[in-house]
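Appendix B. Extra example for self-study. Work through it before the problem class; the solution is given directly after the inputs so you can check yourself.
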Amino acid sequence: AQTVTQSQPEMSVQEAETVTLSCTYDTSESNYYLFWYKQPPSRQMILVIRQEAYKQQNATENRFSVNFQKAAKSFSLKISDSQLGDTAMYFCAFMRLGNQFYFGTGTSLTVIP
Amino acid sequence: EPEVTQTPSHQVTQMGQEVILRCVPISNHLYFYWYRQILGQKVEFLVSFYNNEISEKSEIFDDQFSVERPDGSNFTLKIRSTKLEDSAMYFCASRPKTGDGYEQYFGPGTRLTVT
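Solution. Structure tokens for the complete assembly:
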């Protein structure tokens, strides 16, 4: 079975600073996708960024980037120039091709003005 | 931009009652999912649905649960006889058949409270 671990239940960062959220996973699959979803207080989950396991290049989306270490099964999210709107719960998720998502327990991020 | 919608936003029911949670996936999507999130815990997979049948389900999805796509637009989750431990946020998700890197699009959720 796939497991996803987020070891930081809560984090905070000053506005405009950079923060890194960690995620590790366990799988025997060689081809899969990894995702970071954001769940603001309104509770609808929104995709932040995704990474295909067969791609060595780390994904980036504006202020969001990942550090994907396939051998270490690590998938951290870096948020640069943090904004107040980044305050949310962040979930790391693993997916075998076309199948269900396995979520971590989440990291609650607070951006401090 | 198209969104997944869910109704109701909050449902309160008594233990032993049947509830139906409704979802309208994005119109050109072909895969549909239900997840639940008990307060303070991780989001857990319940079931996936494709081509009018269940394609995968978890241990949580026992005989008390069923899903249906009755009219080509709605996707429902029925809990036949609710238990206190069914209290959770239930999320519907959908995705297209190909492309988009398998991203699943989530609805805003239905908070189910069983008393």
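Self-check: DSSP finds no helices and twelve strands in chain A. If your reasoning did not lead you there, revisit section 3.
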